[in-house]
C-alpha cells in the first residue's frame, strides 16, 4: 500500500512537516538523509529559535523535533534517496535498494556546504581540510588555521575556531565582508583573527604528506602568488541545495534550488511539495525552515483530501 506522505530530509523543515502530518493522522515516513537532523546538528548554540530564552544546542533542538515527530507516529528510515519516479502517482522513492510508494512527497533535503573545487581540497578533506568548524575545531588546538569566505558562515566559523586555534586568518576574495555588521565587529575585535583580503587559495599543501602544511594564495588584484603556512583550512563559502535526485524531475532555479509556487510549497509536480533550505536561499533560518515544513504538511494534507 502506498503511504500518504513521505518526507525526504530530517532537518527543521522535514521534522516539522512530520509533526504536522503525523498529527493529521497521515502516518508519514521520514527518510533521514545523509545528515540526520540536518545542518543544525553541526551548529553549537542556537540563540534565535523562539521558546528557548537561554538558547539551546543545535543537536539537542533537533533531537526534540524528532521525539515530537515520533510521538505522533512518524516512522523513520535511515538512508539517502537513490532514485525517485515522479511521473505518476503513487510516486516511487528508492532508499537503500528498497522502493517506497507514496501519494505525496515532501522534499526537505536541505543544502550542503560548498567547496572550492580544487583537487588538493578534495584530497585533504578530513586531513586538515574541513567545511565544519564545529565538527573539527577541536583537532586544531594551538594551531594556525585559515577560513575561506566573507559571509556569516565564514565569520562564525572563524570566531568559533578561536576557542581552540592559536591564530585564524580569514581569506576573502574581496576587500569587504558580506557578513552582518554585528558578526564583523565581533571578528574585528578578536585578537586571534586577521584578514587576508583580495585573495583566493589555489593550492593546499601537502597532498603527498596527507596533511595540511600551508596554502598557495593568489592575490586577485595583482595576480601575485604567495605561500602561507597553516595546519588547517576551513571552507566557509556558503551552501548549495541537495537537489541532485530532482534534476529534470522538478523545476529548479538556475542555481539548483527547487522552485515553489507562492503562497504554497507546491512544486512543478502536483503532489510534490518542498520546504526548508532546498527551496529557500534567502532566509535559511531554523524557524523559517520549520515554518515552511508546517506549510508543506498542510499543503500535502489538502492535496490528499482533494484527490481522494
Ligand atoms: P554567503 O553567500 O552569504 O557568503 C559566502 C561567502 O563566500 C561570500 O563572502 C563569498 O564571496 C565567498 N565565496 C563564495 N564562493 C567562493 C569561492 N568559490 N571562493 C572564495 N570565496 C567564495 O553564504 P553564508 O553561508 O556565509 O551565509 C548564507 C546566509 O546564511 C546568509 O543570509 C547569512 O546571514 C546566514 N547565516 C547566518 C548565520 C547566523 O546568523 N549565525 C550563520 C551563517 C549563515 P563574495 O562576498 O565575494 O560573494
Bound molecule kinds, no repeats: NADPH dihydro-nicotinamide-adenine-dinucleotide phosphate
Q: How many DSSP-defined strands?
A: 19
| Whole-number tally of structural domains | 2
- Mean pLDDT across the residues is 95
CATH superfamily placement of the largest domain: FAD/NAD(P)-binding domain
CATH topology of the largest domain: FAD/NAD(P)-binding domain
Describe, in short, the structure shown.
The protein is α/β, with parallel strands linked by helices and 308 residues long. It has helices at residues 12-23, 58-71, 119-123, 133-136, 152-161, 181-189, 286-306; strands at residues 3-8, 29-31, 45-46, 56-57, 75-77, 81-85, 91-95, 98-107, 111-113, 129-130, 144-148, 167-171, 193-196, 199-205, 214-219, 225-229, 232-235, 239-241, 272-274.
How would you explain this protein's 3D organization?
By secondary structure, the protein is of the alpha/beta class. The protein folds into two domains: 3-112 and 239-307, FAD/NAD(P)-binding domain, CATH 3.50.50; 115-235, FAD/NAD(P)-binding domain, CATH 3.50.50.60. Helix content is 24%, strand content 27%. It is built from seven helices and 19 strands. Strands 1, 2, 5, 6, 7, 8 and 19 form a seven-stranded mixed sheet that branches. The protein has a five-stranded parallel sheet with strand order 10-17-11-12-13. A three-stranded antiparallel sheet has the order 14-15-16. Helix 1 runs parallel beside helix 2 and helix 5 packs parallel to helix 6 (181-189). It is elongated. The mean pLDDT is 95. It binds NADPH dihydro-nicotinamide-adenine-dinucleotide phosphate (NDP). The site of NADPH dihydro-nicotinamide-adenine-dinucleotide phosphate (NDP) has 18 residues, from helix 5.
